[in-house]
Specification:
- With 128 residues, the protein is an all-alpha fold.
- It has two domains: 32 residues, no CATH class; 80 residues, 434 Repressor (Amino-terminal Domain) (Orthogonal Bundle), CATH 1.10.260.40.
- It is 65% helix and 0% strand.
- It is built from nine helices and no strands.
- Helix 5 crosses helix 6.
- It is globular, with a radius of gyration of 22 Å.
- The chain starts with a helix and ends with a helix.
- About 9% of the residues have low confidence.
Length: 128
């Protein structure tokens, strides 16, 4: 048992009613969730993230993540992870992008823009 927990008057009350372990577990879990974004965190899917973010911000006129996710029929939290580059775009997400906006899966996953409609292909190639 952590000696720092025993001496705190609030924690002594928790120990007496058996809530200390549950509370400590919740605190430890939340520290991992709400810690500041680690810039050194690997972004293995940053290329997919760039294309997805480009489409939402430039082509769709700067839609919010909430609105873009709603139109696609996916959760905003999933979209956020895809745009962060920490999680790969799901197959369902890619299929939704293809049917809703004409974005080919080759483009989303591999960056091959040949299958895009001409206007999108030109916009992608002319981006800064």
């Amino acid at each position: 048992m952590d000696s720092g927990l025993v001496h705190d008057r609030h924690n002594a009350k928790l120990f007496s009613n058996g809530q200390a372990n549950k509370t400590r577990l919740c605190q430890d879990s939340w520290q991992g969730i709400v810690s500041p974004m680690d810039e050194s965190k690997p972004r293995p899917y940053s290329d997919i993230a760039e294309r997805l973010k480009w489409h939402r911000e430039v082509v769709m006129g700067g839609l919010s993540q909430d609105e873009y996710a709603r139109r696609l029929g996916v959760k905003r939290s999933a979209l956020s992870l895809w745009e962060a580059g920490t999680h790969r775009l799901s197959l369902d997400g890619a299929l939704a992008l293809r049917s809703k906006y004409g974005l080919s899966m080759d483009f989303m996953y591999a960056g091959i823009d040949d299958a895009l409609p001409m206007t999108l292909r030109n916009a992608w190639r002319e981006r800064p």
